[in-house]
Amino acid sequence: MTTASEPSPVDEATVTSADRIRHAALANFAKYGTAATSLRAVAASAGVSLGMVQHHYATKSSLIKAVDDYVLALLIGQLSAPIPDPPADSITDIGSRVSGIIAEHPDVAAYVSRAMVDGSPLGATLFDALMEVGMARWELRAERGETRPDVDLTWATINALVLAVGAISLRAHVDRHLPEPFTSPEQLQRWQNATDTLLREGLLGKPADG
């Protein structure tokens, strides 16, 4: 029988009971998957009664939708903000946003990774939405003359997305090769630096000499 996952700390002064339940559901879904998580487990994790969960979310499907909507809004909201104009480094800017999501919202990152590999509708929705946002960024870089002329923008977008999702999906294996967990500040910074360098030097053109 699946036990309740302990959710990350929340500010009790600013969240409603519905928020707390959704947060607990996200933590459980990220760890065990939606199919293996019961409303009773979510209630135990949130510290509320099963009746309270059903009061806010009548069915498991409605709770899953609430979590999915929250995750989608958070990701798209943070990643769709405009990239900075040159000479600012847009690669580092996006890398910092992705690292920030992993560091500040680890349950979201884990849930996204699970959704994209388990064939759930959310996975397809997220992948397509992130592809659209990412493609718009690479097209803008190309219009500005920042990319090499031979860059395949579709694969530039896919590769950047795979690098982020893959690192989370394979975290158990990645951790074995690092001195600290992948999600520690030092290792996230190492990962971001390495990924940014790969994207910048492999896809962007050399800046013209002043």
Automatic annotation (TrEMBL):
<feature type="DNA-binding region" description="H-T-H motif">
    <location>
        <begin position="38"/>
        <end position="57"/>
    </location>
</feature>
<dbReference type="InterPro" id="IPR001647">
    <property type="entry name" value="HTH_TetR"/>
</dbReference>
<keyword id="KW-0238">DNA-binding</keyword>
<dbReference type="InterPro" id="IPR009057">
    <property type="entry name" value="Homeodomain-like_sf"/>
</dbReference>
<dbReference type="GO" id="GO:0003700">
    <property type="term" value="F:DNA-binding transcription factor activity"/>
</dbReference>
<feature type="domain" description="HTH tetR-type">
    <location>
        <begin position="15"/>
        <end position="75"/>
    </location>
</feature>
<dbReference type="Pfam" id="PF00440">
    <property type="entry name" value="TetR_N"/>
</dbReference>
<protein>
    <submittedName>
        <fullName>TetR/AcrR family transcriptional regulator</fullName>
    </submittedName>
</protein>
<dbReference type="InterPro" id="IPR050109">
    <property type="entry name" value="HTH-type_TetR-like_transc_reg"/>
</dbReference>
<dbReference type="GO" id="GO:0000976">
    <property type="term" value="F:transcription cis-regulatory region binding"/>
</dbReference>
<keyword id="KW-0805">Transcription regulation</keyword>
<keyword id="KW-0804">Transcription</keyword>
